Amino acid sequence: MTSPAVCSVLHILDGNMKKLLSRDWRGDISPACIDRFVARVWQTLYAESESELKPVMYDSDAEVSYVYITHNNLYLLAITKSNCNAAALLTFLHRLVDIFRHYFKTLEESIRDNFVIIYELLDEVMDNGYPQFTEAKILSEFITVGAHQLIAPKAPMAVTNAVSWRSEGIRYQKNEVFLDVVESLNIVVNAAGQVVNSETFGALRLRAYLSGMPECKLGLNDKIMLHAQNRSTKGKSVELDDIKFHQCVRLARFENDRTISFIPPDGHFDLMNYRISTANVKPLIWIEASVNRPSRSRVEYVVKVRTHFKSRLQATGVEIKLPVSSDATSPEVNTGLGSVAYVPEQEAMLWKIKSVQGGKEIMMRAKFSLPSVSALEDDGPVQKKPPITCKFEIPYYTVSGVQVRYLKVLERSGYQALPWVRYITKSGNYEFRLDHGY
């Protein structure tokens, strides 16, 4: 049976696996373990089997477990001797990154320059190897980056309160809460024009500017929630998968009747993340590309874009990246909408469209010259081209159909809060793969 997360020692390493700093809480780990971990990682990398690196590794000789994450060029490594909860330790390491990012802009340089403040933070977030307090906003109220005072500031009540993520005495002249429902659509279309991967990742992002200790209740058109409340599920209802809540949400209440009830932190935070499998969905923006070589020294591209959403909506900030031959020169481009730039250092054309309505079809044609030497290499091996990628945002729309049915704010002083709700769908990993003969 696993015990709660017990971290004996924490090491922070740079991209070359050199130790930047470490914190030993329990004194039961040999200093040689860090060298054993580094050797194990390098051995795997040198063998070009990076995929075999796992975030949790057991060293049977030293009888320790290594739990680590990477962030930019840093390794955050926790070592433990106990049969701990590995998922909890991984969560702790990710929360530690969030805390450092809250305090510092560039993480690697900041660790070298601010090790004193970092050691203070490590002593607050962990006690004898047990994670304690990881709310960056509350930590910043009593651990500051500025010069240290002779008398240490008093820790806010939130540290010892049941509501550890919110301070007492917050006051606003105008009480408002802004809720953004943001969905990222991942689409992969193969060279045959078939959708091989399609899923939606969503987040409910709140900006809460509320006085006191408000109680908030949120209702969605969640099919299970509507069943639990004996409401009709005809029409617009969705099934949410892989739901992850902020710690402020009362999980027992949600499991009982699917009500999302919470006391929000002050300011910005993600209330909830979810995933929805969208099998057999048609991409919101469909792209087709054809290539023709009228001669050995010329190549022509024809790109057709169709928008598959309602005409009252608009996709904004559309950017289509089309790979072209590395030796292409002298581009001639014609398009009915937007602008096209040839970016030779990326071996691509960038087609940017400020906005386009739903139900539209637009085309772009481009002609390039090829050096004569390329004609002699036509019979060589065909190199695989990167896919066409697309970026966009569609305001006032969710691809999954998730809707906020209500957002209520109750506070004992009885003030009226103004809730604002906004919907945005944007592209995630959105790509159209190309034929090898492209």
From TrEMBL:
This is Predicted protein. Pfam families: Adap_comp_sub, Clat_adaptor_s. It is found in: Endomembrane system. SUPFAM superfamilies: Second domain of Mu2 adaptin subunit (ap50) of ap2 adaptor, SNARE-like. One of its GO terms (biological process) is intracellular protein transport. Keywords: Membrane, Protein transport, Transport. Residues 174-433 form the MHD domain. Its main location: membrane. It comes from the Eukaryota. Belongs to the adaptor complexes medium subunit family. One of its GO terms (cellular component) is endomembrane system.
